[in-house]
Every structure is written in C-alpha cells, then in structure tokens.
Amino acid sequence: MQPLSPRTANFTDSVIRRMTRISSRHGAVNLSQGYPDFNPPRAILDRLAQTPGEDVHQYSVTWGAQNLREALAAKQSRYMGFPISPDREITVTCGSTEAMMAAMMTVANPGDRVIVFSPFYENYGADTILSGAEPIYVPLTPPEFRFDPEVLEDAFRRAGKTQMAVSFFNPMRLPWVVPGTPGHQHNNCPGVAEDVPLHGWMLAAGYAVRAVECAMYLDLSQFEMPEWAAEKSGQLAKENYAVDWYRSGTHHGLAEMVHSMGNPMWDAEIPEAAEKINMLVALHGSEVVGFAGPVYREKTGRGYFAGIAVSALHEGHGLGGLLFCRLCQAEKEAGSEYMSLFTGSDNHAQRIYLRAGFQVRRRFAVMTKEL
Fold first, then answer.
1. pTM value?
2. First to last CA, the chain
3. Which residue, among 229, 213, 214, 236, has the nearest Cα to 316 in the 3D structure?
4. Does 71 reside within a domain?
5. Residue 118 belongs to what domain range?
C-alpha cells in the first residue's frame, strides 16, 4: 500500500468533530459546530426551488460566477464603505476553510515559517503545513489571552527575521476617530500614534522612529473654493492645461501616467475607477498628466479618494494645488462631510493640503527594531 505523504503524519481527527461526538454522547448543547434548529429564510428556499428549471447548469469560472461576484462586491462595498472590484477583489470559495487554505498557499512558500497565536482555529496549523511551511506557535496567556512581546520577537527570530517593523504599508483598515471631531473616522492606521502608551513602550523596548506620518483633516462645511483658483485656471488654460472630469475616449494616457508613479495600488484602482465611478484629471491638451479621486461619500460621511498625483514632467505649473481644491469641492458636492488623509511630515505636498484648509490632527510613527 502506498504510504501517505509525510506532511499528514501529525494530523489527527478534527477537534470540532471530537467535540460533536462528546456532545451527542452526553446530550449536551453543541457549541463546536453550527447546527441550526431552524430552517433557512423562506425567500431563499423558494428561490432554490426555482433554479433547477433555469439555464444555469454549467461550470462557473474558477473564481466564482460573475453575477454572484458582482452582488458580493456591491454588498461589501456598502458594508465596508469603499469600492470593491468584483473582478480583482472577490473570489468565491467553498466556505471560509477553503478561503483560508487558498490564502495561505498564495503567500507561503515551502520552507517558510508562519507565526500562529495559540489557541487557534485548528485549520491554521494544517494550512501552514500543507503549504510546506512550518508553524511557530506563540501562546496567548489567560485569563486576558495576551501575548508576551519578547516571546513574539523570539518567534520572529526563529522564523529567520532580522527586523520588526510597524509599516505604513499595512493592508488592514483599522478605523479611528479624528480628535476634535463629532466622531469622524479615518479608515486606517499607518503606524503607532504618538499619543498612545504603546508609542512610549515601543521606544523603551528598543524600537526606533523611521518616519512620521501626519493625519490631516478638513471639515468640508468650512471649505470654499479659493479666489486664486479661477485665476490659476485661466493662467493654465494659456499653457493648454486644464482640470476636468475624466472622459473615456476623449482623454488618453491615464493608465500610463498612473503606472509612471510606481504605486501598484494606484495601478489596480485608478484606471478602473475612472471608467466605472469618476476621476478628476489634470490635462495637457487631451493627455492625462495628473489625477485626483475617485470621488464619493463613504458611509461614515468621509469623502473618499485613493490619491492625488501629477506627472513629474508637468510639475511646477500649479496643477497639484488646483487639482486638490477641485477634489475638495467635488467631495463637498457629493455630500461628504469631511476629508482626511495621511502625508509624511517631510512631504512638500503638505503645503497644498494646508493651503486648502486641512489641519494636522494626529501623528503616527513608523517604527522598526533590529532583532
């Protein structure tokens, strides 16, 4: 008989299934698995009864049927408050377990080491092993289930890492309330806030500040288009420059201009948003030489925009300042209550934001520690 793969040697029966058997044996309430004692909503059952007679009996594409992905993207965009692409950011899986397995195999390579906080959902360890990686477990100590930072640092050392970093490029959206506002939120944290105890603790623990990001805020009810904007528009027109809404088929070079900025996130979002939502652009003739947007109101009342940029070949004309003021006016007209953004403490663009009325409300440190 062909032996099983060595990677399965340490796998045991599922803890969840063992708990279910114990529950059944003793007539206990089973909290280990989802066994609802009620039927699905009648509308879902009625729709399921209709589908066998419809022409939907073919394989869907690998990442999920188009109409399902579009519905999921629309729902999550409403729920999360920012646009989600059904083609780039939605993949349909057979439950969360397959989604976790796919995510792990996407980022983990054979020989990698993956840190797992323990106790943990049992598939985390299995997913790591099946990906060819090695799990390193960091215990969470009861009763509060906190981790020891020194144990975590040691786990990173064992994983072959030489540096710990709190990075600006954190993909997680962690909202926080902007100080001095009626609950207005910004949707992510680019580092450790200077006004929280963690900042002082990390300095004492040997972390160094590598950069400072300034959180800036504007109450749009106080924003008015500055008088200089009309004069600047006239001056730029004489040089064949303009700021306008992007029109596909009329304006060209947007994707190329965005790509020249060297920001993969902009590459993924800006050209698609320009086609499907909106985008303010700086133009030289019909060529796109800058952008700001997209423009829309998030459910928090915040005016969303992915970024603003002007091509290096066309800097020095005042396009950035005019483009940004037009962006603020467009957000206000879209019903947004406020805008917030981050910029480096040494970024010259901060002058544009201050001129438009933004104020620095909080500072965040990007921190690192050599291990």
1. 0.76
2. 48
3. 236
4. no
5. 6-27+93-158
